[in-house]
Automatic annotation (TrEMBL):
It comes from the Bacteria. One of the essential components for the initiation of protein synthesis. Protects formylmethionyl-tRNA from spontaneous hydrolysis and promotes its binding to the 30S ribosomal subunits. Also involved in the hydrolysis of GTP during the formation of the 70S ribosomal complex. It is found in: Cytoplasm. The chain holds residues 386 to 754 of 962 of the full protein. GTP binds at residues 85-92, 132-136, 186-189. Residues 76-246 form the Tr-type G domain. This is Translation initiation factor IF-2. Belongs to the TRAFAC class translation factor GTPase superfamily. Classic translation factor GTPase family. IF-2 subfamily.
Length: 369
């Protein structure tokens, strides 16, 4: 049985792919970045980085039924977008600008709440969903759990600075995950801005932007002044359209936990992204090592929702604990079964916690959702 690729293993451990490649090499295995590794190799390589690996068979792990979607049940869904880049290059400014510039009438009255993701509707009716947890950490935390929710990554680089270590890291994360990138060359309003220097530095990493004859879309912007943001989003949509993103809204919801917290008054608040199916009030949920029933559901404007379809960010009440970012959630028909799986997972987790803190759990490929 084969498990993850070299680059997936690297990003789970938060190390460079080249480090994994050289660890393989020292075992006499000449692996390429996209090569899948067998269990033995993974164990040895991971131990060199201080990780203990546990292999679980997807079948044994849980009995969550996965239903094949019929072609005619698949409907277009909005893309899920992550903004990544070096600190201070403008991630928060860009996300804030997009959120505020596109508030639709009727939603404007609500208090904007941070629920880890938000959804905007463009003039032509197209919807976009943005993850706005601190992009980089969320992405790596989720990747470390094998979760992949991002469809398109915006890599933001300040034009008055350079391509920085975290820029490179963001690029390699996106590449390892096979997520298309659009480059936002930010702060062009600044006197010292030199967008061509950024293009040049990207080209040194083998990333040639479109206006230099390459395949990567790039857009000069000012996140602060709101300059060219529409143009940037057009390019993101172009990239997303190529992916022909679809999901079946007519089934039990599945998705990913974005973040969770404990509120003294309300109990556990779980912010999640519905990826497929439709989530409804009253649904039984299994999320990581926790379970419960959806008692209340809100969007990022504090508006109460009765149901939420694919690519919708929601904040819910009713889960009996705080699942981790990147945990999958599933709506289940049987509350007792959900509770029993959660309990079993909690037991496993406790036992593992006693053994080691650095731990990777790898599921067999092909049974992710
Ligand atoms: P983050 O660390 O990537 O989230 O970066 P922030 O969005 O917090 O921005 C860091 C600083 O750069 C803040 O002081 C912003 O006001 C400023 N900034 C962000 N975008 C622009 C821009 O387009 N032009 C100018 N002049 N300043 C910007
Ligand atoms: Mg920030």
């Amino acid at each position: 049985t084969e498990f993850v690729t070299v680059s997936e293993l690297a990003s789970m451990m938060d190390v460079q792919s080249t480090q994994v490649i050289s660890a393989c090499m020292s075992l006499g295995i000449f692996a390429s970045i996209n090569q899948r590794l067998d269990a033995e190799t993974i164990s040895i390589v991971a131990s060199e980085f201080g990780f203990e690996v546990e292999f679980v068979s997807a079948e044994v792990q849980d009995a969550i039924p996965t239903v094949e979607d019929k072609e005619e049940d698949l409907k277009d869904r909005p893309p899920i977008i992550t903004v990544m880049g070096h600190v201070d290059h403008g991630k928060t400014s860009l996300l804030d600008y997009i959120r505020n510039a596109t508030v639709v009438d009727g939603e404007a009255g609500g208090i904007t709440q941070h629920i880890g993701a938000y959804s905007v509707t463009r003039e032509d009716g197209k919807k976009l969903t943005f993850l706005d947890t601190p992009g980089h950490e969320a992405f790596t935390a989720m990747r470390a759990r094998g979760a992949q929710v991002t469809d398109v990554a915006i890599i933001i680089v300040a034009a008055d600075d350079d391509v920085m270590p975290q820029t490179k890291e963001a690029i390699s994360h996106a590449q390892a995950a096979g997520v298309p990138m659009v480059f936002a060359i930010n702060k062009i309003d600044k006197p010292g801005a030199n967008p061509d220097r950024i293009r040049e530095q990207l080209s040194q990493m083998n990333i040639l932007v479109e206006d230099w004859g390459g395949k990567y879309q790039a857009q000069e912007i000012s996140a602060k002044k709101g300059l060219n943001i529409d143009e940037l989003l057009e390019k993101v949509i172009l990239e997303a359209d190529l992916l022909e993103l679809k999901a079946n809204p007519n089934k039990n919801a599945v998705g990913t936990v974005v973040e969770s917290s404990l509120d003294k008054g309300k109990g556990y608040i779980t912010n999640m992204l519905v990826e497929a199916g439709t989530l409804r009030i009253g649904d039984v949920i299994l999320a990581g090592r926790h379970s419960g029933r959806v008692r209340a559901m809100h969007n990022e404007h504090g508006k109460e929702l009765k149901e939420a379809g694919p690519s919708t960010p929601v904040s819910i009440l009713g889960i009996n604990g705080a699942p981790s970012a990147g945990d999958k959630f599933h709506v289940m028909d049987d509350e007792r079964e959900a509770r029993s799986i959660a309990t079993k997972r909690e037991q496993l987790y406790r036992e593992q916690g006693l053994r080691t803190q650095k731990h990777l759990t790898l599921e067999e490929i092909g049974r992710r959702l």
